[in-house]
């Protein structure tokens, strides 16, 4: 029987913390994820220039403590000391590196919610810390594991993937620039399908829409359409060499979070992440390059190996 881990959360300014608690702490939930319970949390410090941080920190902290009985602690280190594994959930990607610096020396598994970091340099530093302290580390958007997408990938069987077109809502948040706020969901879905290896990205943007085109080293092409007007649903059209496969992401009853938490719990129990950290680094770099292309109107070569 799988042992039950004592889980801790750092950063309570996001709805993810209560959604995760429902799935992990309530055995009666139809999509309950076994293997661990959230026992302790450090609320963190709200970002004063980010309303979605400072307006939500206290309400979600109160709900986590009062509804789920989670013990509130006063630092990242206190959470790491008292728990077997950590969910780093702060909504502001700007604080993740500093928080991870405090968690990494404990050597315990850490899941970092999206966005992992807001620059390639910060992502490199976090990965270096994980390697130095042998921290099992994983980061992603929950959309990566949406059941509708997983079902279509299974349907493909051996049909080689030729490309993918991903779409979804793409609100812009000044503190998490360009694709780092909501565009990252489509980027994660694209990389779930295509894997690492993008070499060039080009973006078109206006007040209502973004279109981002990535070219992979083997010639395959993947696209992202971000909507700020009209359709606010997520979807993916996966192109195989023999046929195309459409995933309506909202069509499945299983929550995105449940599918993602299955992979997070695998990380926590085995120390093995489903996503290679090299791919996570490339995702952050892809977004950085896409943002550059949004600003300049020119295609941008990915520069990870330079």
From TrEMBL:
Pfam families: GFO_IDH_MocA (PF01408). One of its GO terms (molecular function) is nucleotide binding. Residues 59-138 form the Gfo/Idh/MocA-like oxidoreductase N-terminal domain. It comes from the Bacteria. This is Gfo/Idh/MocA family oxidoreductase. It comes from Cohnella faecalis.
């Amino acid at each position: 029987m799988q042992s039950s881990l004592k889980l801790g959360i750092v950063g309570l300014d996001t709805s993810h913390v209560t959604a995760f608690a429902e799935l992990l702490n309530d055995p009666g939930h139809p999509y309950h994820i076994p293997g661990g319970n959230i026992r302790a949390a450090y609320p963190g410090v709200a970002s004063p220039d980010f309303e979605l941080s400072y307006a939500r920190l206290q309400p979600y902290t109160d709900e986590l403590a009062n509804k789920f009985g989670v013990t509130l602690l006063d630092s990242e280190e206190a959470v790491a000391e008292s728990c077997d594994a950590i969910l780093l959930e702060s909504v502001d990607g700007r604080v993740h590196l500093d928080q991870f610096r405090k968690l990494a020396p404990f050597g315990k598994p850490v899941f970092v919610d999206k966005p992992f970091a807001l620059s390639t340099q910060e992502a490199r530093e976090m990965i270096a810390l994980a390697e130095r302290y042998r921290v099992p580390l994983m980061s992603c958007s929950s959309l990566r594991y949406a059941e509708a997408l997983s079902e279509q990938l299974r349907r493909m069987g051996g049909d080689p993937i030729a490309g993918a077109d991903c779409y979804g809502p793409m609100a812009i948040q000044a503190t998490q620039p360009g694709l780092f706020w909501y565009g990252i969901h489509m980027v994660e879905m694209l990389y779930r399908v295509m894997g690492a290896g993008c070499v060039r990205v080009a973006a078109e943007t206006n007040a209502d829409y973004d279109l981002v085109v990535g070219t992979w080293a083997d010639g395959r092409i993947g696209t992202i359409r971000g909507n700020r007007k009209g359709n606010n649903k997520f979807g993916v059209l996966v192109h195989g060499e023999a046929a195309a496969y459409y995933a309506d992401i909202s069509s499945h009853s299983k929550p995105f979070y449940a599918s993602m938490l299955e992979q997070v719990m695998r990380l926590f129990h085995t120390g093995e992440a489903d996503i290679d950290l090299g791919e996570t680094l490339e995702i952050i770099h892809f977004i950085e390059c896409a943002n550059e292309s949004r600003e300049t109107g020119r295609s941008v070569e990915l520069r990870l190996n330079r």
